[in-house]
């Protein structure tokens, strides 16, 4: 029997995974970040509003999750080229893009 059938929670185990979530300072982006962190992922919080992103980072860390802030505007192509080379974004296992 597979591990998933003996332990359904293992289907949602995201330990050792890193995910970059845009727009994660509030709303759906923040909800996704909190859920992914609760499942064990290290979340990279992204947005333009530094205070919102830092507040979200603190909230996730205080809840026992792993989070890092990465503040830049994903609509700026020059910044995206730079961000692709940063360790936080370069080794992310996934990207969740929240369009507003």
In terms of DSSP E residues, the strand content is 15-25%
Question: What would CATH call the architecture?
Answer: 3-Layer(aba) Sandwich
Distance between the termini: 43 Å
Low-confidence segments, ≥5 residues, pLDDT <50?
none
Within the CATH hierarchy, at the fold level, what is the topology? Rossmann fold
The H-and-E topology, N to C, reads as HEHEHEHHE
Tally of helical runs? 5
Helix content: 40-55%
* CATH homologous superfamily (4th level) name: NAD(P)-binding Rossmann-like Domain
What is the oligomer described by this structure? Answer: single chain
Mean pLDDT level: 81
Largest sheet descriptor: 4 strands, parallel
Rg (CA only): 14 Å
- Total number of beta strands: 4
Overall geometric form: globular
CATH top-level class = Alpha Beta
User: From the helix content, strand content and strand pairing, which structural class follows?
Assistant: alpha/beta
Can you walk me through this structure?
By secondary structure, the protein is of the alpha/beta class. The chain has a single domain, classed as Rossmann fold, CATH 3.40.50. It contains 5 helices and 4 strands. A 4-stranded parallel beta sheet has the order 3-2-1-4, covered by helices on one side. The chain starts with a helix and ends with a strand.
């Amino acid at each position: 029997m597979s591990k998933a059938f003996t332990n359904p929670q293992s289907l949602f185990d995201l330990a050792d995974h890193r995910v970059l979530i845009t727009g994660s300072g509030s709303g759906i982006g923040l909800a996704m970040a909190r859920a992914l962190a609760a499942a064990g992922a290290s979340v990279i919080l992204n947005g333009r509003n530094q205070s919102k992103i830092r507040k979200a980072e603190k909230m996730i860390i205080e809840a026992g999750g792993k989070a890092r802030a990465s503040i830049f505007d994903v609509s700026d192509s020059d910044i995206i080229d730079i961000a692709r080379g940063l360790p936080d974004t370069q080794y992310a296992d996934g990207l969740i893009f929240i369009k507003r």
